[in-house]
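Its record is quoted verbatim for completeness.
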Amino acid sequence: MRRQVLGCCGFAFALFILLLVYAPHFIPVASAQTGTPPSSTISSSSGPLVWDFAPVGGGTVTNVGIQDICPPGMCDDHDLTIVLPAPAATFYQTMTAQVTFKYTWTSTLPTDLDIFAISPNGADHGPGSPDNTSTGPGEEDLTLTDPLPGLWHIRSVASLVPIPVAAHVVVTMTIAPRPTTPPPPPPGILAFTVLAALLTLFETDCPTLRTPATESRPIMNNNKAYSIRSWPRLSSHRYLSHRRIFIIVVL
């Protein structure tokens, strides 16, 4: 009996060791998702969100699509769910929404970190702005205007990072009524309005246009009578300026 008990204990111990060794190969691991926390949800009533990306390093200098693959060590992922107050098809008819990411880090060597947002339909948004290399405090800002609701992948990507650097992000969501612009007036009404305004301007600022003749005298020549009238000069600077404006509008 004692041997049977020892044999069962030994078998159980060996099975426990095997589980410790091989369990990691059977447990699914979220690739490059080690930030704190790994996921969150934002809405118009949730208030700002904050999280820290895990350190990333290396890089490819130019964008070769690392943000789409997000390999561990070069990229860290955060799953962000965006929730709208109503279905997008009806909400965006009268309202507009913006989700803004303030992405910051501190480095001791020249570093270029980038933030990307991958939409639910797989479209890339990013990198943020300014997209440059900095030493010490660094920052990129990224804004999504009228984003799709659903699961977004927000990724911290090493573009040129000699030493792995962690990043911090603050996310805000704002909604507002969609601006509306009145339709323009028909071309005929607009032209008539401009013409009426110019005629009023001439009458107001150019009194010489309505000044009567100042002198009249008859001249006899070959049995024909002529009447010569002296009219005021119409060469004031204001008149010429208005005349040029009138010609430009009419043409």
Remarks:
- Residues 1-6, 11-32, 208-216, 225-251 have pLDDT under 50 and may be disordered.
- DSSP finds five helices and nine strands in the chain.
- The longest helix spans residues 2-26.
- The longest strand covers residues 150-177.
